[in-house]
Amino acid sequence: MSRIPRLEMIIEVHFRRFRVIKIFPR
Prior knowledge:
This protein has one helix at 5-23. The protein is mainly alpha-helical.
């Protein structure tokens, strides 16, 4: 629960990207 929805979205996107990178490292 965050007061700023934008921050939450950024964190989610970053986390997803990190996961993708971990799964498929370039």
